């Protein structure tokens, strides 16, 4: 026997004791779920959580109150919770009462309650005005009261039903109430920060202090009660206590001897009792503790750096519970740790002695109760009955004990408790339970090849060990002897490697092969003669469909397998075929990695995202995910086993889970889908339609929107799944969307410009895209049409239509009766319009027809008056004829003025004139009539010169009309006064008579068109004169006034403004200077009887007139002076123009075939004729006709009847002006490089000729005929037109031009005579000299000498070679 030294033995015993102690207090292997509260992209620290009836979580944090729906955190401001009238303070806490109502309290005592609408309402204001240094420090909620502890030694119990409250005061102003808890029988307990606990009775209001081992003025105490009313007390100095009310004794959880009752820390800072009655302790650095009040058993949860599923910090600052009993643990630095309620039924092992989550490839539950976990690369881990990892075998380390491989793929235990271990690449290992060592067993084929990849192991009822390897199937005895070997692809066996062995209730051995399918072992007479019968699971040529990875038997005639597509298959042993698994969707029988059978009706399968319970009878799939306590990572293929106690084990990438199927809940949590936010026209609906959301958006059944709110959005979510809300959503607006819109991450449905009508918004959610297993929600949406499109509006429209139809029918009869009358009236109107048009046309034609004979009358009369200077009586008679002709002309002009007024074409043409002189001349024309009727006619002017802007013809018409009326209605021996005057602003003209006068009735209408009084009709008249006079005065911006007394006389007064500011620009036709007007008036009248016209037979005059007598008059008038051609219309004139080029044309406007305006157009568009000046004669005295004539080239416009002498003067002046233009070009020396800037057609023509001549001035080969091509005109036309304009031939002009150029060069430059001759286009210098002498009377040499002696420039100016 080996002897061990005494000191060594003691050391071993000490290590064993320490090991026993450490494992006794190892933390619980539980998967915590971790979250973070992110607000404004920053993590915030949370201390408490409660869940409302809808499923929202409300968290108290450093950032205030938060609402969490599983997706987003919504921060509530202080004013949203307590209102605008409460001063700001930190939130003390939130709590939920037994009715599910949530209460929120501030440190200053403001209390608010969460209403069903989702909004907070302030409840009581008793404690909202605490002094600045006084605050509330603790909060607890009981059955009927909200308890608040202060920092001034007072505990306040506010009733949850009314405003009443109770108070307990310990009369210690600097002592803080740290915790409050209700007990039984109206008892309330509260603790302080000075080591004291008090007991109060709310019925008797008695209060006394509880003495205990925790009493210490420096010890902060917190407490809670259990369901029996006993106290659980935590301190920050002396640890954790239990106080039994019956025995009035304390139990201190600080006794290490009682391991299950030991809390190895003193700093207890949080204490919480959950809905199951469990007590939870949060410590500062000591982790989290759970105590069962009945057994006082303690569980500890600590932070482990190597375990990512452990508590994230050992400093616990808050503990809370949600509605489904999940425990939320809040640790320092803002971490949230969630312990799912089902984690108590699902166990967890990390698979590693260090606690680091490890990939588990295989699991074995031993006969001695230990659990062996085969890992993926980290060897074997042994977990004892208490759940502690006590040993780990790792190959190639000092803990290997002979283990050769760390990838453990399969494990079985024989009846001797020895273990058979299958590894990857390291073959088969055998563990001897007696020696606790491993040894290798060689797996060989007939060729001696070693099997290294051991995928599956199985011990049948005959204690034979079946080994599936990469070389085939081997059969061993328990002693390790290989009994048989079945190679792949022989004896009916096919496939790569055996994945699973199964033995059914008939002791038949079934083999599942990778890429081979299912095989039944048929034993022969000898083991070597045995064979395998293949069965195809799926009728498919795809090997993967029949590739088996794991399986299990239900021992009721069925085998279950999963293939390489992770599909679950059910095989009927009796029928030898795969049968369907009825009642499950395609998604539910896929994604399977391992299978365990509870009984013939219940399967448990692991998946990549959890563990499923398939209830074959109920046809239900209950999925348990990491939210229910399973590992968060995927489960691995084939990693599953169950023990004799029917505990199921599944391994995955982060360890393994185990559970008792009977303890697993089959009723899963009902998740609630809610619409939790609505926006209307991109604004929160609570601000747009608050009255419709009074009960909260989550309870909303319908909304009504007006016609301006056709754009809206809905936000929705599964709000009571706070751990992993990974759902698919589908929504539609029924009545608008034809199909469901499916989304995964987008939880907002937005609609814009929705037509008016009724719709239903529907939303549904599901755990899979095609599995909508959460109750859907719907909201009725009504988009109201505008008021004018409502049903009652259409009723009104219908009534209005009926009434309208009634009146239409009623009046249709009347219309039928009136139709004939209307047709007659329409016919009459047409006739009236035709008559009106005929009248206006008659006025125009009559005026024209009258003016032409008047011209023929007045022209000879004027000539006769001039020659009757010696015969006074004859001259007097001729003047009578002349005056009446002029009167007749004015009547015709009056007709045209009336026509223009009717057509809206009456226009003012004002210029500046001396009205005094004008009125004087008018007065003189009436002196003969006054003498004849023996009327005293007086003309009076206060000023000799009155300058006025007015239309001379129109104002003369007004004055003539008034004077004519005065003479008409004034009897013999009567009196007429004609007076004019002016002031600084206006001109005044009055005409008064002593005639018959006008009565008041007629005085009202005298300015109406065609109105005549009885007296007026008696003396004759048209009723036009005064009406037209008023129109003409209005056109002048003047006034005409009348004052009359019956049988005494009448006075007319004209008032006109001085200056021209009242006139429009287009109404002013010239702006002659005032001095010029006065000078013209002051000049002595010259003898204008005979115009001074030089007779020149070379000048051609063309007269175009359709009236033969007028044509003869004009021809006779101009024949003594010019060579006259005549034509009766424009067409004949054009024919004459093609034969000869006249110097001037006089044309009438109104002619047959072609009128005067058309003739102007034709001449303007003809290049060879556009230079000919045109004078138009017309009786159409309108501005529009004048402008039209001037527009198309006429340079003068003379109205009929005209003064012949005036016409002669104008013709002569135009020709003289034309002659002066010619002289200008004859005397101008074109030495400059540019031609003069001209505008008229003649000037443009001359300019074109000069430019071409100057270009070719030095070209001796240039011919004048070349101008034809350059000017696009025939040479004959160019020659003729140039001569008519300049009175000089082209040849002479070209020679003159060259000689002027030569004279300039001769004086200014030092060239020889020959050089100068060649420079100006002469080939022969002698010929040049002869021409030069002929032009300047000097030879070139003499010319140069004289120029040099006379100063050069002056000499050139004298000979008109250069300009002054």
From TrEMBL:
Q: Which SUPFAM superfamilies match?
A: ATPase domain of HSP90 chaperone/DNA topoisomerase II/histidine kinase, Calcium-dependent phosphotriesterase, CheY-like, Homeodomain-like, Homodimeric domain of signal transducing histidine kinase, NHL repeat
The membrane spanning regions, by residue number, are 791-813
What Gene3D superfamilies is this protein classified in?
1.10.287.130, 3.40.50.2300, Histidine kinase-like ATPase, C-terminal domain, Homeodomain-like, Immunoglobulins, YVTN repeat-like/Quinoprotein amine dehydrogenase
Query: Which reaction(s) does its UniProt entry say it catalyses?
Result: ATP + protein L-histidine = ADP + protein N-phospho-L-histidine
Residue span, Response regulatory domain: 1100-1215
> Which residues does this entry mark as bearing 4-aspartylphosphate?
1148
Q: Which UniProt keywords apply?
A: ATP-binding, DNA-binding, Kinase, Membrane, Nucleotide-binding, Phosphoprotein, Signal, Transcription, Transcription regulation, Transferase, Transmembrane, Transmembrane helix, Two-component regulatory system
Pfam families the UniProt entry points to? HATPase_c, HisKA, HTH_18, Response_reg, Y_Y_Y
Q: Which InterPro entries match?
A: CheY-like_superfamily, HATPase_C_sf, HATPase_dom, His_kinase_dom, HisK_dim/P_dom, HisK_dim/P_sf, Homeodomain-like_sf, HTH_AraC
Write one Gene Ontology MF term: ATP binding
Q: EC number(s)? A: 2.7.13.3
> Could you tell me which residue ranges the Histidine kinase domain spans?
845-1060
Signal peptide range:
1-26
Give every HTH araC/xylS-type domain span: 1247-1346
Name of protein: histidine kinase
The species is: Ancylomarina euxinus
């Amino acid at each position: 026997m080996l002897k061990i030294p005494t000191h060594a033995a003691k050391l071993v015993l000490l290590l064993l004791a320490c090991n026993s102690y450490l494992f006794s207090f190892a933390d619980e292997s539980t998967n915590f779920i971790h979250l973070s509260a992110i607000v404004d992209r920053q993590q915030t620290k949370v201390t408490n959580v409660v869940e409302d009836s809808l499923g929202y979580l409300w968290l108290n944090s450093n950032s205030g109150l938060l609402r969490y729906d599983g997706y987003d955190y919504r921060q509530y401001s202080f004013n949203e919770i307590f209102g605008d009238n409460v001063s700001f303070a930190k939130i003390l806490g939130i709590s939920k009462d037994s009715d599910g109502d949530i209460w929120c309290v501030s440190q200053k005592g403001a209390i608010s309650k969460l209403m069903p609408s989702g909004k907070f309402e302030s409840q009581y204001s008793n404690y909202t005005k605490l002094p600045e240094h006084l605050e509330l420090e603790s909060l607890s909620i009981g059955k009927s009261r909200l308890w608040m502890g202060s920092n001034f030694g007072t505990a306040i119990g506010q009733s949850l039903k009314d405003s009443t409250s109770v108070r307990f005061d310990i009369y210690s102003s600097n002592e803080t109430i740290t915790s409050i808890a209700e007990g039984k029988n109206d008892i309330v307990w509260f603790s302080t920060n000075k080591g004291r606990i008090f007991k109060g009775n709310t019925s008797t209001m008695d209060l006394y202090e509880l003495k205990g081992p925790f009493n210490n003025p420096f010890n902060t105490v917190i407490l809670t009660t259990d369901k029996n009313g006993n106290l659980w007390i935590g301190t920050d100095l002396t640890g954790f206590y239990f106080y039994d009310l019956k025995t009035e004794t304390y139990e201190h959880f600080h006794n290490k001897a009682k391991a299950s009752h030991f809390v190895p820390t003193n700093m207890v800072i949080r204490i919480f009792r959950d809905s199951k009655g469990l007590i939870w302790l949060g410590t500062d650095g000591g982790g989290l503790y759970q105590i069962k009040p009945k057994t006082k058993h303690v569980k500890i949860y600590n932070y482990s750096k190597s375990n990512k599923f452990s508590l994230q910090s050992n400093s616990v600052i808050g503990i809370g519970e949600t509605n489904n009993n999940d425990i939320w643990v809040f640790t320092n630095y803002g971490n949230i740790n969630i312990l799912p309620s089902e984690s108590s039924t699902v166990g967890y092992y990390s698979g590693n002695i260090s606690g680091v989550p490890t990939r588990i490839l295989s699991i074995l539950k031993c006969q001695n109760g230990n659990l062996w976990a085969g890992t993926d690369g980290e060897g074997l881990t042994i977990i004892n009955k208490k759940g502690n990892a006590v040993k780990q075998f790792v190959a190639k380390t000092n803990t290997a004990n002979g283990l050769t491989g760390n990838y453990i793929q399969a494990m079985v235990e024989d009846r001797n408790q020895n273990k058979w271990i299958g590894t990857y690449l390291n073959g088969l290992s055998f563990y001897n339970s007696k020696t606790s060592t491993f040894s290798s067993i060689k797996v060989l084929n007939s060729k001696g090849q070693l099997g290294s990849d051991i995928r599956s192991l199985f011990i049948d009822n005959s204690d034979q060990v079946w080994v599936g390897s990469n070389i085939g199937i081997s059969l061993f005895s328990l002693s390790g002897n290989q009994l048989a070997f079945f190679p792949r692809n022989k004896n009916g066996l096919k496939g790569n490697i055996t994945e699973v062995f199964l033995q059914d209730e008939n002791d038949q051995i079934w083999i599942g092969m990778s890429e081979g399918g299912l095989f039944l072992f048929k034993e022969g007479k000898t083991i070597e003669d045995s064979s395998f019968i293949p069965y195809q699971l799926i009728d498919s040529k795809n090997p993967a469909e029949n590739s088996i990875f794991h399986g299990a038997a239900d021992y009721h005639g069925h085998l279950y397998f999963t293939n390489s597509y992770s599909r679950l298959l059910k095989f009927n042993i009796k029928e030898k075929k795969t049968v369907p698994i009825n009642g499950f969707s395609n998604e539910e029988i896929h994604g399977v990695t391992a299978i365990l059978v509870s009984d013939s009706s219940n399967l448990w399968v692991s998946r990549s995202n959890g563990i499923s319970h398939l209830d074959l009878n109920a046809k239900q799939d209950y999925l348990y995910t990491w939210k229910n306590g399973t590992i968060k990572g995927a489960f691995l293929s084939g990693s599953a086993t169950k023990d004799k106690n029917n505990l199921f084990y599944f391994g995955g990438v982060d360890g393994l889970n185990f559970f008792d199927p009977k303890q697993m809940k089959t009723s899963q949590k009902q998740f609630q889908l809610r619409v939790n936010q609505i926006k209307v026209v991109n604004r929160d609906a609570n601000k747009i339609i608050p009255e419709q959301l009074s009960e909260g958006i989550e309870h909303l059944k319908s909304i009504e929107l007006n016609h301006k709110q056709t754009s809206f959005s809905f936000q929705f979510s599964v709000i009571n799944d706070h751990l992993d809300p990974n759902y698919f959503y589908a929504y539609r607006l029924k009545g608008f969307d034809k199909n469901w819109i499916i989304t995964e991450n987008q939880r907002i449905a937005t609609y814009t410009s929705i037509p008016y009508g009724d719709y239903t918004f529907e939303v549904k959610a599901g755990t899979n895209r095609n599995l909508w297993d959460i109750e859907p929600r719907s909201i009725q949406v009504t988009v109201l049409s505008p008021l004018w499109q409502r049903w009652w509006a259409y009723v009104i429209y219908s009534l209005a239509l009926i009434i309208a139809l009634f009146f239409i029918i009623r009046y249709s009869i009347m219309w039928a009766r009136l139709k004939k009358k209307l047709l007659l009236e329409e016919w009459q109107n047409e006739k009236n319009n035709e008559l009106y048009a005929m009248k206006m046309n008659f006025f125009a034609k009559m005026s024209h027809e009258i003016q032409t004979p008047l011209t023929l009358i007045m022209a000879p009369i004027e000539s006769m008056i001039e020659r009757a200077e010696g015969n006074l009586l004859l001259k007097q008679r001729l003047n009578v004829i002349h005056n009446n002709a002029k009167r007749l002309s004015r009547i015709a002009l009056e007709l045209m003025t009336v026509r223009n007024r009717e057509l809206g074409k009456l226009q003012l043409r004002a210029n500046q004139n001396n009205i005094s002189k004008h009125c004087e001349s008018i007065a003189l024309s009436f002196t003969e009539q006054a003498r004849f009727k023996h009327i005293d006619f007086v003309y009076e002017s206060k000023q000799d010169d009155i300058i006025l802007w007015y239309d001379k013809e129109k104002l003369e018409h007004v004055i003539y009309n008034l004077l004519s009326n005065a003479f008409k209605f004034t009897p013999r021996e009567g009196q007429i006064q004609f007076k004019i005057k002016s002031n600084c602003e206006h001109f005044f003209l009055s005409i008064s008579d002593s005639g018959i006068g006008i009565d008041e009735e007629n005085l009202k209408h005298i300015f109406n068109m065609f109105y005549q009084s009885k007296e007026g009709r008696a003396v004759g008249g048209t009723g036009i004169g005064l009406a037209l006079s008023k129109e003409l005065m209005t056109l002048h911006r003047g006034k005409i006034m009348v004052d009359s007394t019956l049988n005494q006389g009448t006075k007319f007064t004209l008032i006109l403004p001085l200056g021209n500011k009242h006139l429009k620009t287009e109404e002013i036709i010239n702006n002659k200077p005032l001095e010029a007007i006065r000078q013209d008036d002051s000049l002595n009248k010259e003898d204008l009887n005979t115009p001074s016209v030089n007779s020149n037979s070379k000048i051609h005059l063309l007269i175009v007139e359709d009236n033969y007598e007028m044509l003869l008059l004009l021809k006779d008038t101009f024949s003594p002076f010019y060579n006259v051609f005549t034509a009766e219309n424009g067409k004949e004139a054009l024919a004459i123009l093609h034969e000869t080029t006249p110097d001037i044309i006089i044309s009438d406007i109104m002619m047959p075939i072609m009128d005067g305006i058309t003739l102007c157009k034709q001449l303007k568009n003809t290049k060879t004729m556009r230079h000919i000046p045109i004078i138009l004669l017309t009786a159409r005295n309108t501005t529009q006709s004048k402008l039209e004539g001037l527009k198309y080239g006429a340079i003068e416009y003379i109205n009929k009847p005209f003064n012949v002498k005036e016409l002669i003067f104008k013709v002569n002046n135009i020709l003289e002006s034309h002659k002066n233009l010619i002289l200008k070009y004859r005397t101008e020396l074109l030495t400059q490089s540019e031609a003069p800037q001209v505008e008229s057609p003649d000037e443009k023509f001359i300019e074109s000729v000069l430019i071409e001549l100057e270009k070719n001035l030095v070209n001796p080969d240039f011919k004048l005929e070349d101008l034809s091509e350059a000017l696009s005109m025939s040479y004959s036309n160019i020659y003729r037109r140039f001569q008519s304009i300049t009175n000089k031939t082209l040849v002479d002009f070209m020679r003159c031009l060259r000689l002027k150029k030569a004279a300039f060069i001769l004086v200014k430059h030092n060239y020889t005579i020959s050089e100068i001759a060649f420079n100006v286009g002469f080939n022969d210098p002698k010929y040049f000299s002869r021409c030069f002498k002929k032009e300047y009377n000097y030879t070139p040499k003499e010319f140069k000498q004289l120029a040099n002696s006379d100063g050069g420039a002056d000499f050139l100016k004298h000979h008109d070679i250069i300009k002054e």
